[in-house]
Amino acid sequence: MAIETVSFAQIATAATPKAAVLYGLTAGGAVYEYKYSREVWVPVQMRALPENGSHENVIGLRGPGNFSSTEG
C-alpha cells in the first residue's frame, strides 16, 4: 500500500469538548481531518446544503459576525 502525499494550503484547528481537532484544506478544495490515534490525515466527505436547506439538520454552523444557525 503506497502512502499518498498531501499538501495543504491552509490548516485550521477546532476546539471540541474532548480535544482540539486539526483540519487541512488543499489548494483543490479537499478537506482532511487529522486522526491522532493513527497519525494520518483522513479525507472528510463534504457536501453543500440544498438551496431549501430548511429540511436539513444543521447544528452549530457559524457565519459572518458569529451568527449561529440551528435548523432542524
What would the keywords be for this entry?
mainly beta; 72 residues; disordered C terminus; globular
Sketch the topology as an H/E string, one letter per element: EEEEEE
- List the total number of helices: 0
User: How far apart are the first and last residues' alpha carbons, in Å?
Assistant: 42 Å
What is the alpha-carbon Rg in Å? Answer: 15 Å
Strand neighbour order, sheet with most strands: 1-2-3-4
How much of the sequence is in beta strands?
35-45%
The helix content, as a percent range, equals: under 10%
Mean pLDDT: 77
Largest sheet: 4 strands, antiparallel
Count of strand segments: 6
The general outline is globular
Tell me the structural class.
mainly beta
Low-confidence stretches: 63-72
Explain briefly what this protein structure is.
The protein has no helices and six strands. By secondary structure, the chain is mostly beta strands.
Question: Could you characterize the architecture of this molecule?
Answer:
The protein is 0% helix and 43% strand. With 72 residues, it is mostly beta strands.
Topology at a glance:
Elements: E1 10-15, E2 20-25, E3 31-35, E4 40-44, E5 58-62, E6 68-71
Antiparallel strand pairs: 1-2, 2-3, 3-4, 5-6
